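User: Hi! I'm working on a homework problem where we have to compare a predicted structure to a textbook description. Could you give me the structure for the chain below?
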Amino acid sequence: MGAFSKVHRFHGAGEGANVNNVDRFGTPAYSLYTSTKIFTLHHHISVTDENNKEVYVARTKFPSLHDKTEIYKASGEHVAHVQRKLISLHERHFVTMDTGMEFELSNELFHLIKDVTNIEGLGWQLRGNILALNFELYDKIGNIVAVIGQKMLSIHDKYCIDIYQREYEEIIVAILITLQHMIRDRESSGSGGSHGSSSSGN
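Assistant: Happy to help. Predicted structure tokens:
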């Protein structure tokens, strides 16, 4: 389904980019893939390339009220720190890159099917279809940066990401990891509300 679906954009390593992504945005520079493993004390996300070689890893230690996550290259070099705002209607997450760059992901409320996440500090925007599990990442002038697809019915929470602006790879990976945490938090809240159970804050 991944390479040809008009709705669902996930594809596995070696399958090639989704034809609809290619039609809309052109051929991506390359793709990366994530798979999640959940341990007792750590939430572990592995990011691999087309050859299933690990290039990044994200680790979250539990319990953690702020959902603090560290992202590393496979070599062990630290890339970014991600932290959730404890009380927020907008599902705010803060990202600090090792380069010193800082930005914040904040969901716009009241979208029933489409998700819109502003990336403050970059001027980027993440636009998603929560039913089809697709997300498009745009830069501040509206150019496509990456397209994200989530695999349906996967116990390992798999994603693929077609990257169009390779110079932003580390930032894209940090945004993807943060997005996965935001979706997981929303799913965990269940009937408590799609944007968390808080009734105050930003």
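For your comparison, note the following. The longest strand covers residues 30-38. The chain has one domain: 19-189. Good luck with the assignment!
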